[in-house]
């Protein structure tokens, strides 16, 4: 087993991690107000390979966050991952972005709801149990005061939507974890390793990010 390079660019966090046997060896990331993925991603990849004392030929696979998330961020990450896989002749692994976000939180009991901001009161969300098993699929939804109101267990919200969610999600069992904002490639390591062992690979030529919503270009009226 060689190394797996993990790439996470679905949100403002440009994140790259090198892992072996499911354990992160090195991780470089930067979350900025403005997206810097096009500038930082390839630099982080090159730095990690150099600092680890390996070459690109030592990679066994590349894993990429598949979305949902930023259209531009996902395109940059997926394009880089596919380029490396094609050039090196190695498998491509995709990892659900909200699963990566949920895996940053450790709880013994309750429900984890990772949310990624989709502007205004809309979010991308999924629901996980304490074992990090997805119990409700990814959805794009508009938050209201009745969102998740049918859940009586302790709920832990993580992600970059917490500030706006706090204003409307006020049930006493709702908890907002304000130390986890963005998904990180660090949490991809164990997930991508399991997928590697199960030969869960994507077609490099045809794989596309999971945008969840159609990307729409806005044009100015004339």
Automatic annotation (TrEMBL):
Cited SUPFAM superfamilies: Actin-like ATPase domain
Domain Gcp-like: 36-143
Domain of life where this protein originates: Bacteria
Cross-referenced Pfam families: TsaD (PF00814)
CDD domains found in the cross-reference section: ASKHA_NBD_TsaB
The protein's name in its UniProt record: tRNA (Adenosine(37)-N6)-threonylcarbamoyltransferase complex dimerization subunit type 1 TsaB
Name of the encoding gene: tsaB
